[in-house]
Each structure stands twice: as structure tokens, then as C-alpha cells.
Amino acid sequence: MTDTGILAVTLSTAEGPTQAELFEHVLNDALLGSSIYLNIALAGLSLLLFAYMARNVTDPRAQLIVVSTMIVSAVSLVSYTGLASGLTISIIEMPDGHALAGTSTTLSGGGTYDGTISLWGRYLTWAFSTPFILLALGLLAGSNLTKIVTAIVFDIAIMVTGLGAALTTSSHLLRWFWYAVSVSFFLVVVYILLVEWPEDAKAAGTAEIFNTLKILTVVLWFGYTLWWAMGNEGLALIRNVGLTSWGYSAFDIVAKYGFSLLVIRYVVNNVRTVSAGSEYGSTSDVAPADD
Q: In Å, how far are 24, 38, 228, 233, 279 from 237, measured between CA atoms?
């Protein structure tokens, strides 16, 4: 190889893999690829199913709950496509002290790069999809706007700080500081789900379905949190990127599509309970004056 050729290879390695290389790697890695492509298929099919199930829903509040849950699948379809294309995947070098510091990754196309694969696009998925899960839950509980907005804002903060934890390469300690901040925001959302909204749901007459959904959501979201700590981004007890990705994908299947199916089926069969009149979710007993 000429000096020019050696320089070109060195520069290419230093710059990191191209989208085409990452796309090819996902396509050819059976474990990693299946965790992504299956979710693309499920997101698309669930959108069609949910649209068919709710085709006769005309009540505005019921429609808003249905649309909220459908947006979750729509966001997943887009974001998983970003992962599959290599657009939202990178190889990052872990800081000193991390279990994967100093490691390298060989892609299926043959290129070897310093660092480990980061599927950081998942944080975009969660940042744009989980707020609509909480919106649907808040509406089902008949909660007021203040509680719903509080839950959504802290939820977005969970995902943004989680992204910070995943992409910080300057300090191992800072990665875990980001993680701790993210968990603290998560606990605020958990409090709303377990303490505030159940009381609202009792008053709204939706306690039975809400209690099922809150348990499903809290358990699975704790699962995401623990999986991060065990996966290649955290303690790296699970080093395989494909296995780590499959864990997140399995959580997504239940927490998104399974959750949405339960919500839409309930709404379709209980429109009157969901709409519940003008006082549903109100913050005052005073009726608005006529114009």
C-alpha cells in the first residue's frame, strides 16, 4: 500500500464509520438488526390496526386519547428507521474507568474503529413518544392540565439527561451523574403516576384500566432504567450491543404497542366514561359564563 493509501485509511478510521457502513452492519448483524427491523414492522402494523379499531370514535376527548397512542407508534416507525439506516447510530470511545474503555468495534463490512456502538437514536424515540403515553394516561385519569404538563416536562427531561449520560465521553463520573439526574426526574413522573393520577382516575370512573396501565408503565420504565445500568452504556455487564438493543426493543414492544392496544380497546368500548361530560378533568367547580 502506498503512503497515500495508508493516510486515507488512517483518516477514514479517525473520522469514524460512514452511515453506509453502519447501515450494512445493522443489516448483517442478525441480533442487532432483528431488534430494529421487527419494531419497524410492528410500528407500521400497529398504526393500521389502531386506525381500524378506532374508526368509529367521534368524541373529541376519546379521539385525542386514541391519536396520542397512535403517535407513539408513528414516532417509533420513524426513529427505528433512523437506527436501521445508520443515521442515529455512532461509535463512541468510552472514558477511562468505563468497562469498555479502550475497546474497538469491527463492523460487518470489515472496518475497525475505536469505541463501542451507541444507538443514541433511541433517546430521540423516547423523548418524542413517551410524552404521548403520559398524555393518554393523564387524559384517561381525568387529570388537570397542570399535572399532565408537569409529567410530560419531567419525562422529556428524563430522556434528554439520559442522552447526556449515553454520549458523555469526557468523564466516567459525569456519565453516572447524568444518569442520577435522569433517575431523579423519573421519580417525579413515578410519583404522579402512583400517587396523583390514581386519585383522579377514581373520580373519573377509570380507575380499573388506569391502575392496570400505571403498573405496566412503571414496571417497564424501571426496566429501561435498570437495563441501561447493565448494558454496554452503563456497567457493561451485558457487553453485546445486539443483546442490549433487544432488551430495549422488548420493553418497547410491550410499553408502546401493548400499552396502546389496551388503551384504544378501552376507549372504543367506553367512550361515554372517557368523555364524562364538561367537568371531566376540570380544576374548578365553577361553570364558565355564557358569552
A: 26, 25, 10, 10, 51
* Cβ atoms 255, 217 nearer than 8 A: yes
Q: Which of 66, 65, 42 has the alpha carbon at shortest distance from 55?
A: 66
Cβ atoms of 179 and 229 closer than 8 Å: yes
pTM exceeds 0.85 for this model: yes
Three-class secondary structure assignment of 62-76: HHHHHHHHHHHHHHH
Q: pLDDT tens digits for 213-256?
A: 999 999 999 999 999 999 999 999 999 999 999 999 999 999 99
CB proximity list for 80: less than 8 A, separation 6 or greater:
36, 37, 39, 40, 43, 125
One-letter amino acid at 291 equals D
Q: Which residues contact 151 (CB under 8 A, 6 or more apart)?
A: 134, 138, 189, 192, 193
Grid cell in block for residue 231? 448494558
pLDDT in tens, 179-200: 999 999 999 999 999 999 999 9
Q: Give the Cα separation of 152 and 147 in Å (integer).
A: 9
Cβ–Cβ < 8 Å for 133, 71: no
pLDDT band at 286 (very low <50, low <70, confident <90, very high): very low
Amino acid found at 275: S
CA 1 to centroid of chain Cα atoms: 46
Rounded Cα distance, 46 and 77, in Å: 10
